[in-house]
């Protein structure tokens, strides 16, 4: 290990991307050509913006100084295809300087010989459980001191080097000592599923390697697994849970695929699973303003108004069609698509198809039906449901305000349905949903009943004065309609779950706000509801009889709360 000269900025930079570009260019024009550069930035979008800006600046310099040395620009991030990753290990062409713009994957995962100059943005992108939405969020956060040391050390592997940190030295003391492990900051559903598959039923008492995950995260994950029907009433792994645990997919996507087998569209759902795992294939989304209008026009050919997953399905089907795309790089370039991304999705899909046929014995029917596919997505991703608001934002069932990611096909469109489900959330200056699909309220309602009644004594009630009731129910909606909406997806919020065989109607004077049509609708899903003795439009005065699992929200006299 050779010494590394570390420099800091005098103040926090406002534009990290521009600061990285300026630092690279200043070093390139003033330092000897011997020595490559490594730039650490939070994410893939930052990488593409920096590479494109440096390429543009290099072209401008070549027009005024033809003899100037050129830059050999290379990206490096986890999702990059293998061939592109290998390029960072090769020597640059003669008379050029290699510049690698990377995420934190370059901190410890690879050894890059020849790097003499490191630019450290001071930030990284990690996955965090956002308690306001109940889902993992990709957030840009300051690096730890351990990461800062690792990044600087990359400049001194083969010779003395230099590192520029784009933050004042005083900020170093404020950084955390090391990065927190995923076990204490992320959703635990997949991990607990794996533990139960290994025969460890009491995950709450499991002897975790310190630091142990927060108890609230464990409870939330168990509630979610129960709602997926992966666990039985005693919290043990059931047959469906075993299938989800073995799958090379997230529990949500695996549940969607298994539901698709029942709907007769498993083949298409496996394609969606593969495409959503590799990132966006659209070049315009990757390279931003540098792409021309042609990219946007090409993208519109594949857009499905139902959402991103069906749009990605259209892209893949056209790509592999022997009459259209023929899986060729030329066709992908013509339609402003990333060929390497599509090929990687094709390989992942082949692996998923092999797994589904060998281990699940799924019938891979092809029946392109947008309604069926969206219903399957709702079955897997119902905890990630959000409702469209009049101001154009979305409201999650936990009450968080969400926005549509600019890469989504719904970014500039009014959704065809009030409700959507999403794949994940990215936090920039606001929480933005990605991989969005429109779903119907009735699907969420029926899915909630099915999830709840796999344990026959489970019921979910809330009071109209409860905060969740206020958030979910516009004044124009009746309390019972709002209660149905709450029941449909608030199953995950365990404090609203009451496990008891029956509830009773209060002897009160409030008039029932339900309609006969709604009562009949609810009765389709639960037999006890038919025993309700309070007629629509009447009061409950004098009625102290058992009305089954679902009573009107303004007359519930007992709700168990498990904080």
Automatic annotation (TrEMBL):
<keyword id="KW-0067">ATP-binding</keyword>
<dbReference type="Pfam" id="PF00271">
    <property type="entry name" value="Helicase_C"/>
</dbReference>
<dbReference type="Pfam" id="PF07717">
    <property type="entry name" value="OB_NTP_bind"/>
</dbReference>
<keyword id="KW-1133">Transmembrane helix</keyword>
<dbReference type="GO" id="GO:0003723">
    <property type="term" value="F:RNA binding"/>
</dbReference>
<dbReference type="Pfam" id="PF21010">
    <property type="entry name" value="HA2_C"/>
</dbReference>
<protein>
    <recommendedName>
        <fullName>Helicase C-terminal domain-containing protein</fullName>
    </recommendedName>
</protein>
<dbReference type="Pfam" id="PF04408">
    <property type="entry name" value="WHD_HA2"/>
</dbReference>
<dbReference type="GO" id="GO:0071013">
    <property type="term" value="C:catalytic step 2 spliceosome"/>
</dbReference>
<feature type="transmembrane region" description="Helical">
    <location>
        <begin position="480"/>
        <end position="498"/>
    </location>
</feature>
<dbReference type="InterPro" id="IPR001650">
    <property type="entry name" value="Helicase_C-like"/>
</dbReference>
<keyword id="KW-0472">Membrane</keyword>
<dbReference type="InterPro" id="IPR027417">
    <property type="entry name" value="P-loop_NTPase"/>
</dbReference>
<dbReference type="GO" id="GO:0005524">
    <property type="term" value="F:ATP binding"/>
</dbReference>
<keyword id="KW-0812">Transmembrane</keyword>
<dbReference type="InterPro" id="IPR007502">
    <property type="entry name" value="Helicase-assoc_dom"/>
</dbReference>
<dbReference type="InterPro" id="IPR048333">
    <property type="entry name" value="HA2_WH"/>
</dbReference>
<dbReference type="GO" id="GO:0004386">
    <property type="term" value="F:helicase activity"/>
</dbReference>
<feature type="domain" description="Helicase C-terminal">
    <location>
        <begin position="12"/>
        <end position="199"/>
    </location>
</feature>
<dbReference type="InterPro" id="IPR011709">
    <property type="entry name" value="DEAD-box_helicase_OB_fold"/>
</dbReference>
<keyword id="KW-0547">Nucleotide-binding</keyword>
